[in-house]
Structure formats: structure tokens, C-alpha cells
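Weekly puzzle thread! Below is a chain. First person to post its structure in C-alpha cell form gets bragging rights.
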Amino acid sequence: MRRVDSAVEAVHRYRRPDPACWDAVVEAVRSEASSYDADHALVQAGRAVVRHADRIADDLRRHQGSFGTAVGHGVEVRALALAGMGDLRALPALHSLGKHGGLPTQRPQARILAELPAAELAPLMLTKLRRDRDDYHGNTTTLELLALCGAAAAPAVPEVARRLDMPYAYDALRVLGRIGPAAAGTANRMVDFVTGRDPRAGRHHPRRAAWAHWRVTGDPTLALDVCGAAVRSGTASHGLPFLADLGPLAAAHADTVRGLLDSPGAWTRVAAAHAYWRITGDPEPAVPVLLAEVDPAWAGHPAVPVQEAVRRLGEIGAPAAVAAPLLGRILAQEERLGYPFERIRILADGAYVRTLTEALERIAPGAAVDPVPAPSKELVPLPAPARRRIFGFGRPI
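Winning reply:
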């Protein structure tokens, strides 16, 4: 048991633990002496345990029972572990879990499902949406995942459109916009949110509704007017992402956007840099602004736009070559992000590592070489004070 505890600590603390650590986690979960910590480490493992996929799939079938209908904790752990690898063998169990309320509703854990192909994820989320009619977390999380499916979520349009009459209208507008022309039948409802005629329209709805109207109709007029006015009015950070998506269509707003590169708010600066590059195609003013936000000591606190800045530098690609050495050093760091609490630490750090890797590959292909895993001495338990510091809920290292 001490070896298992040490292995669980290692996979939570290190980005590249000795493969034997993950082996020990898998064995612990498959044994009768599994623990909460081992279970939740495996749920977050993703492709780190892909060599064990067949064994996990066999174990999942065993936990589902002879009729394949069981939906307990053991089924959830194994199904999510497979989903995190993009393994389609998770789908039957996930559909059963979706029908019985067994899928995660908290966004970090639910985003594990985003590793599945959109064509498979969308029907699963539609099943869940039909069940979670009034549940706040169930609706907002499911709608977020449907938005990631894009046009593949078209069969969900009627169910998503119903959310326009619920407290989840803002999230529903995002999904409909991402679906695109297949959601054109909801365009008039979007206009109601832009104009305030809809009683649920709040101060944030007009921009997203105008953007969604452009996405479903192909007419950018409303989006340019509403989002451009937001950028000029002082609520810039709420309009900039939509102008960025409009790209060259928003050329009339380029000067206003450029003026926001010196905004006192870090999120606004990053959004302005991205929007200016998308609108004009000129990376020169944007790259220094984005690079200034990339902090190698960032511990993962979501209030700071470090990961967003890395992502946008990656989108710019080769013209952001000056960022490559810094991104490479951050990617090579041995320890995971320290801020996220234990249940999501591997997920949060894994997402950051993917962002760094993808950005480096676009900026300097071949530069994102994965370092050699740390040696097996990681199986030595950490001293108790260090353990509390690393795994404290929400506290940075």
C-alpha cells in the first residue's frame, strides 16, 4: 500500500513520472484494495496509461456485469479512464451512465469526455442534456462540451434551443453559434437577445447573441455593430473575442483594438493582441504583448491569462519564434502546476502541457521534444509536510 501511495503522489506531482508509477496506479484500481486517490488519478491519466487500455476495457466489462447495465463508481472510473484516451470502448458504459446521472457535472472532470470524437461525443451529450433538465452544473457543462462538437452537434439544436428559455441561455447561444447554419432556425431568437426584447437578456447576452447570429446566418452586420460598440464603450474584453472570430471582416475596428494593447487589464491585453492579429494578419504588435504574459513561474491560477497567451502565440505560429525558447523551458519543467487541487491537478497540468506542445509545434516544428521521464526514485514517499503543501486544496505550492 505504501508503494501505491507513493506512486499516486508521483503521478500527481510530476509531469513525466516513471512509467512504473502509472503501472502501480492501474494495478491498484484493478485490485480489490483500490482507493479514492488511485481512482481519481486514473480518471485523469489520459494517454499516460494507454498501454493498459485493453486491461482497463476488460475490467470495465467485468464491472458492468453480465447484462452490461451496471452504472456504479467502478464503471464510471474505468469508462472515464478509457474516454480520456479517446477509446471508443468507453461509449456503451458512458451512455448508460448518462441516462442514470452518472457522468461528471464539474467542468474539469467532464472535459475528459472531450477526448472522444465529436461525432460520438455529441449524441452522448444530447442524452445527458435530456436528463439534466434543471440541474445547473449538468446543463452548463453539457452545453460546453456540445459547443466543442461544433457542427456535429446539429441533432441537438431543438434541445439546445429550449435552453434559451432557461437560465442557461448564454451557454446555449454559444452552442448554437458553433453549430452554425444548421441552427439558422433560431436566428430570430438571437435577435431578441441582442435587442433586449427577450426577458432573459442580460448585459452579456447581446454580444454573444450577435456573434451567434452571424455564425448561423452568415451575415456579420449585427455582430460587427454590437461587438464593435462594446469594444469602443469600455467593455472591451467582452467584445474582443467575437471580433477576433470575425477576423478581417472587423477591419473597421482594427485601430480601436490596437489601442487596447496597452490596457491595464491582462486579459484585455491578451484578447486585444489576438483580435488585432486575427483582424489584420500583422503579428508584430501582438507578439510582444502575448509574450509578456507568459510567466514560467505560473502555478495555474485561472485569474491570470498565461495559458491563453501561450495558445494565441501558437496560433500566430512562426512569426512568434521569439517565444520558442521560453515555451520550451516551461514545457521541460519537471513538476506539475501547483495551484489546482488534487482531483483536477493532472487534468489542468495536462491541458497546459498540450497547449505548450501545440504552440511550440506551430512556432518551431520539432522543438517540442518530450524529455526523458524522471527516474524511479519517485516511488519514494514524500515527507508529510511536503505532501500537505503539494496536495492542499486550491493552495499554490
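Puzzle host: Confirmed. Bonus trivia for everyone else. The radius of gyration is 22 Å.
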